[in-house]
Specification:
The chain contains 2 helices and 6 strands. The chain is an alpha+beta fold. Strands 1, 2, 3, 4, 5 and 6 form a 6-stranded antiparallel sheet that branches.
Length: 139
């Protein structure tokens, strides 16, 4: 199943990551599981940049599903350009989206993925309303 990124989304963060030799598999391209690490890395970096590093004693984001569509192989050596988008803020959830390209070919999307994110009160282990500061970031 392929899930497409929506047209209506907000670019919130961009970063680069090196493709490491150890990211490769026996077929000579970046292993599929590594793409999910790239998606996780940009989500965490964005959350930290808006003042929300992970804190298991408070509230924060939890991913309830994730996907990745693979369009073109990433290979070593190189650098990944990751762009993060958000959309569809609701009471306790929002969607995150990400495109992955090479910095030497930034217009060619090699992979695109996303995740539904729910805001959680970690000690209570229950969903919580999105804080106002986060709603402002998502708007």
């Amino acid at each position: 199943m392929r899930i497409e990124l929506p047209e209506q989304k907000k670019l919130v963060f961009e970063m680069t990551m090196p493709i490491r030799w150890g990211d490769m598999d026996a077929m000579g391209h970046v292993n599929n599981t590594v793409y999910f690490r790239y998606l996780e890395t940009i989500r965490l970096e964005w959350m930290t940049s808006v003042g929300c590093p992970p804190d298991p004693r408070g509230e924060g984001p939890v991913i309830v599903n994730a996907f990745c569509n693979f369009y073109k192989q990433l290979e070593y050596p190189g650098t990944v350009l990751a762009r993060m988008y958000v959309s569809d803020p609701a009471r306790t959830t929002f969607e995150t989206w990400c495109t992955l390209a090479r910095t030497d070919d930034p217009d060619t999307i090699c992979a695109a993925g996303g995740a539904t994110t729910i805001w959680v009160n970690f000690p209570a282990q229950k969903a919580a309303p999105l804080p106002d500061w986060l709603k402002a970031q998502l708007a």
